[in-house]
Amino acid sequence: MIQAIHMRVKGRARYKVHRLFRSLSLERYLERSLASYPEILSVSANSLTSNILVYFKPENSWYHIGLLIDQAVKDYQKISSLSPTQKPSKSLKPQKLAVNNAQDQKIANWHSMTADRVIDTFNTSKISGLSSEFATINLTKYGSNVLSTIPTRSPGNILIDQFKSLPVALLGAAAGIAIITGGVVDAVVIMGVVGLNAAIGYITESQSARIIQSLQNREQILTWVVRENQQVEIPTENVVVGDVLFLKPGSYIAADARLIETDNLSVDESPLTGESIPTTKTTAPVSGENIPLADRLNMVYKGTFVTSGQGLAVVVATGKFTEMGKIQQLVNESTSIETPLERQLDQVGSQLVLVGMGICGFVFGLGVLRGYGLLTMMQSSISLAVAAVPEGLPTIATTTLALGIREMRKNNVLVRSLSAVEALGSVQTICLDKTGTITENKMLVVEIWTITQQITVGSENINPYANNELLKLIHISVLCNESEVSQQQNGEYVVTGSSTENALINLAISAGVDVIQLRQKYALIETNLRSENRNLMSTIHEIDNHHKLIAVKGNPAEMIQICQWRLQNGQIVPLTAENKQAIARENENLAGKALRVLGVAYSQINHDHNGNNHETNLIWLGLVAMTDPIRIGAKKLIGEFHQAGIDTVMMTGDQSSTAYAIAQELELSRNDQLEILDATNLDHLTPEALTTVSDKVNVFARISPSNKLQIVQALQAAGKVVAMTGDGINDAPALKAAQVGVAMGKGGTDVAREVADIVLEDDRLETMIIAVSRGRTIYNNIRKSVHFLLSTNLSEIMVMTTATAAGLGEPLNAIQLLWLNLVTDIFPGLSLAMEAPEPDVLSQPPRNPHEPIIKDSDFGRIIFESATISVSTLAAYSYALLRYGIGARASTVACMTLITAQLLHTISCRSENHSIFSQEKLPNNSYLNAAIIGSFAIQLLAVAMPPLRNLLKITPINIVDTAVIGGGALLPFLVNEGTKNPALLNQAFPNFSSTEIAT
Q1: 8 A C-beta contact, residue 670 and residue 647
Q2: Among positive and negative, which fits the CA dihedral 65, 71, 77, 80?
Q3: Which residues are 627's β-sheet partners?
Q4: Burial zone of 411 (CB within 10 Å; 0-12 exposed, 13-18 middle, 19+ buried)
Q5: What would the pLDDT profile of 865-892 be if each residue is shown by its tens digit?
Q6: What stretches of 301-380 adopt beta strand conformation (E)?
Q7: Which residues pair with 252 in a beta bridge?
Q8: How far, in Å, CA of 954 to CA of 144, rounded?
Q9: pLDDT at residue 441 is higher than 80
Q10: pTM above 0.85, yes or no
Q11: Which residues are designated catalytic?
Q12: CA distance 391 to 385
């Protein structure tokens, strides 16, 4: 049922199409089919609201448009229920045809063969296409024309990954031993911490995965082919080898195919090749060895887009045998690399294992020698094992990264995994795909040259009405143009066509020309498009009853030959040989800047003009130069990367000259010398040689998807942490292989988004520097948290080991140790991870990925801080022993002193150099203040509440005990703050290093 719901505005109507609800396929079908009607200007369908908005020519009624919509819906129903040639038998149901079980398709250099030979190879025909019977045989034999899905992390895998860290494994082992020895409560508390960590990681990562999944587009579901002498539209997945594709503007190509007929056909192949300018296609064979995809002018490939013209092509490969399918296979074969933080935390965990096992064994043996019972010593050893493993470590790391992801979302940066934020902060080399990433993947006029003036578009306001020659040039560029132009109610223009012709229209609009009125004034009579041997386009327009206007644009070298006149001060004068030489020189100059250059000319003829050749005796106007513009802010971003110590590498499918010009404009090299390498030289390099040279090259030109993967892997082999940006199908393998893959959210392809770690939702490349800053800050803050956790947990080990060795009993029992770690580890440690970025975070070079998260110089400081806390706690415990003897009251004093000292130690860990005595103060951290006050309040609550007090086996305290506890906690804090001098610690512990602990 079709219902018109808004039709008051002439030329605009909104309809309710009930069958459209939640039907993405119908939505796309309506937009595509209705746009083909000449009376309809634009269509926008919405499957969520069931509405369709149509702009149409005002002379048509809304009722007539409604009938067209109704007919389109009926046509769709027929296509959905029946195959265009027959009822869908079981063999034709795509879901029943597993591509993995299909036979291999024939692989040959189809581009080097003649069109007739390809037709004969597949037993097909340009006129009649395949028969239904033969199409069914090929579909059954080779499988559906679908790509294998890219493996994604299932919810189960995301959850399991949360438990794949050594600290979590250690906590699990401690919980198991606790259960065996009767400590069920201990085990429950331990596993509660593990579960909290897993929940935070799972919720954050699964939410990011869902957001990125929602960005996916649906592939075109219907394709025009020739079958049994008829042009029919069939499901794309039913396209088979031998099918003859009918190509027309606005359609995506369903499979790899050899062209057998072209009519001014241009195809946008940027998602596959990286070429930003649409390629003009031909049917002639292409000879030579190892011809790049971009140079196979007689081939079209799955996933590319027809921008103009028409053509016929024989399908030579479908599904996984297409070039896109091969790329997807590369993606599936690529493996992800472990990030630096993952390695660092595993290293810390390994060190804790060695320390914990050594101390537990020592204490257990010492206790047995002193005559303590085996069960008692087993429980004490478990207590120390728990003390050795900071329960807050995995939770703090996970939560900090999760908060980083949340912060990134505010800047439209979607992060797939927790570790990706940190990894981007440690990147040393960033590989930038040119088309669609550095550039906007659209053409823009940047220079206009006439014999009398040169204009740089953008740097000055263009007033064509002040110069007759310039005004004429812009008018002719609008008239000799196939782009369609419409104007919305708000005055905005909608321009649809090839990127080159759109650029000319946009130039006119920005100069104040009413392009719609201009076209109405000079009605189009005839269009002569480009051909293989004629790089010109001309149009003929009505001026009045006696005259016609000839508008011409094309290759400047060819244009010069057919121009005999030029405009000068509004007068037509001869175009001299000197003028032609000046035009040729300027054409070479503009081409040398990697610009696409068009010549523009015109003439007027009488209605009674005889002959068909109107492209002679033309009046020269000038040159129009355009480029795929570099994104706003890209040059500044490159400079910021360099300031942050990050090398930048550009990868592109463009020619070396084009790539070099863009790299120079971006100042891509951190040094004066810009190094460029053509991909044709990569095949002659061994992997070792490529690894050596990759670190010195700034630009890789004419590269293929496999080349991008090679380059990323070579940089990684050279020891670099690599980030890769891209938006096309051809970027996917490298995106997956890099430590951090960054894809575009709007203009990017589904394949690129699916494998990327980070998606820039609004395609703003400059948000990457925000991610770099966030990543570095997160690492620094996690390092502060780890420093805090190690120093406080080491103080617990020192207290327990010293007391046991001295025969002073157990200052803290197992449940108190767990409680202490819960109160002082998670929230205070997490608050340290919320510290604001340091002002010079982007002025520092990237850290060495092999450097441990706790450096050699840090361990001396950690031992010193732990020792001060331990000595002070043991002093308070000794006071309690003298007053109360071994028991719960002495244990309470030790527990309260240690907890308070550790909470104050959080303040000391905010900075390695700044202290409370420093004149330069650190910025306020409200999270830290709340964590310290809240944690201390929880501990006071434990003392005040009898049930919790009984569980922890602690007792109430008096005023004297409170004074001892306060003094025992404050003293180490003042000592540690007053000794923040690295020189003193290096003298105290000159030979101590983390590598010694690890070994």
Answers
A1: yes
A2: negative
A3: 444
A4: middle
A5: 999 999 999 999 999 999 999 889 999 9
A6: 305-317
A7: 305
A8: 71
A9: no
A10: no
A11: 433
A12: 11
